[in-house]
Amino acid sequence: MQKTLFVCIFFVNICFAQKADFNNINFSKADGIAKSYRSKNLLNLNEITFNITKDLETDVEKLRSIYVWICNNIANDFGLYTKNKRKRKRFQEDSIRLHEWNSEFKTLLFKRLLKRKKTICTGYAYLLKEMCTIVGIEAKIVNGFGRTSTVDFTTLTEANHSWNLVKINEKWYLCDPTWATGISFPEEGKFYFQFNEGYFLTAPQLFFKNHFPIEKEFSLLKDKTPTLQEFIEMPLLYGEAYNFLETHLYPTKMHQEIKQNVFFTFEYQLKKEIKVDDLKLVISSGSNERTVQPEINLQDKKLAITYQFKNRGFYDVHLYHQQKIIATYTFEISR
């Protein structure tokens, strides 16, 4: 009964959340405070949180300062991520050993977060929630499936990612401090801080393209939440898409099967005006890759890219903006 009541209240609160607009808020002060404050560890989280929010007036500015501080100070612990993945796979048929490892892992996770300022998605989401709680902002940890170019859903047996819901002015919003922080190169053993603005208070329709919550009401989508299988079949979007797009309109699936010589149109709603010359459509098959010249129509930040697929075969199709990859699709062209 309590869970049912919570869900009902939750839905009342999210009804208009996706329409909220913070364009009137200048985050430069919050960003400046967050970027300039340093701490060797997180042993005094109350003090850190107080110092980076005390001079800010609104809750959204306080949230912004907390978010930016996390993204500029907490490194991705890909070593711990790899170890956890390896252990879970090893013990997947041994429930007792898996339970023991999960307990050990939680201790290790928080120890490394507090003392080394390194963590994985669970730690990022936990830290944002705790710091928000300190300043009176309600936040939740959302567990689910994160979709990237390296995730193999055929072997995935449990949720692989965590992110946050935050409540501002009685409305719920989505953010992902993990993916906003930077880029990991596990094969090189390196992590680079590189803040991605797009994962902060992201539009639910776009956020869902890469984030499938276990509890579907946490998607914040107004319409029916797609199934996990529908989610897996969606186009593959990359980090730059979150800076570039307001939402991805068409196609709704990553894989397309069309006839030879058919004109196919990709559709997007952009966040801001762009130069058409900065766009590039690349088609690859095996080791062969070529940039093609599609018809591009841009009006009122709605982008339509039309291309005629003349050659039969199986192709990967990539959209780039300013040399940064936005999305990937696959096409099977038949006679």
TrEMBL record:
One of its GO terms (cellular component) is cytoplasm. SUPFAM superfamilies: Cysteine proteinases (SSF54001). Residues 113-179 form the Transglutaminase-like domain. This is Transglutaminase-like domain-containing protein. InterPro entries: CAP/Cytokinesis_protein, Papain-like_cys_pep_sf, Transglutaminase-like. SMART domains: TGc. Pfam families: Transglut_core.
